[in-house]
Prior knowledge:
This protein is of the alpha+beta class.
Amino acid sequence: MTTAPVTEIDLAAFAADPYPALAAMRKTAPVTFVPQLGAVLLTRRDDVHHWEKQTACLSSDQPGGLMTVLMGQNLMRRDGADHQNERKILFPALSPRTVARHWKPKFEAATRAILDDLKPRGSCDLVRDFAMPVSAHALREITGLTTMTAQEMDSASQAMIDGCANYAGDPAIEARCHAATALIDAHIDRQVAAPPEQSVLAVQVQAGLPMDNTRANVKLVISGGQNEPRDAIAGTALALLDHPDQLALIRQGKADWADAFGEYVRLHSPIGMSPRRAAKQFQINGFDIEAESRVFLMFSSAGRDEAHFTAPDTFDLTRNTGPAIPFGAGPHFCAGAAAARCMITEIALPMLFAALPGLRIDGDAPLHGWAFRGPVRVPVRWTP
């Protein structure tokens, strides 16, 4: 049996603000079983960084896991050669060179059109009206599902990540997830005979990957590739508007948009955790971990570990964010990281602040979630 100490949490409070509970765990029980989640949580950065790479003990292969059951077994739920093979197949669609040469011009054109539409309005919700369509239009191109609307892409992504975090077993959340995956399958069927060049769908079809694997990987790209950039764009903009002294550093050339993005995802990792299955019985820091038990690698907690970050709850563009691991640190490091960084730091943020003079917050802008975290809304105004 698992011998890690037990920590009780209030799920609603944890979703609203997980950081006080995570800080307490880091201090007194960095390896702890949380009954409300049915999992052992690793909350210190060094433990997360080390154990993410130990796939013989903590496996990504989770036949009964929510992602596998709801979305199919994608490359993030494979280890070893199987994982590397599918990652290699996807690489031509997501490599830094492909992003710079093929996707970036498309990202820029879509973002410019969105901002041209927004400028005369004088106000909007940055989540709904800017970050969501910027991310969704980029994802339509990358996946090859150009028949999907931006709203369909966003809704499908949200339904899937809600399903993957549905550890309380809410049947309504599960039903929405199934509807989303069925919608994606229908769009794949429309595009599969002639998928757009360089797309995730195209490279998998060209490599002869089985359709079950291809479908699961497209769903993976949508689930992480929509919500994470959406939440990071809106969240980083919110943090900069909330901290004008930090925004001034960028305008003075003392920091850049990549610094802002790196500090935001350290502070509020959009993907807050990654689940693993204990492939065998073993020990973490002297505590027995039972075979087949569930272990959560808490990236959101790692980014605020006091052992690596001074004043970890403070938004500070001058700090070294190197020890943070918001994209993971092992063999499952986010395959779409180059696309996300390009979209956010080279296009969305600089174009947003350049296009909308006098941009300012205009109301309450709460964040929500623990497995996936981002702003619910970011109401803003500017000078039309």
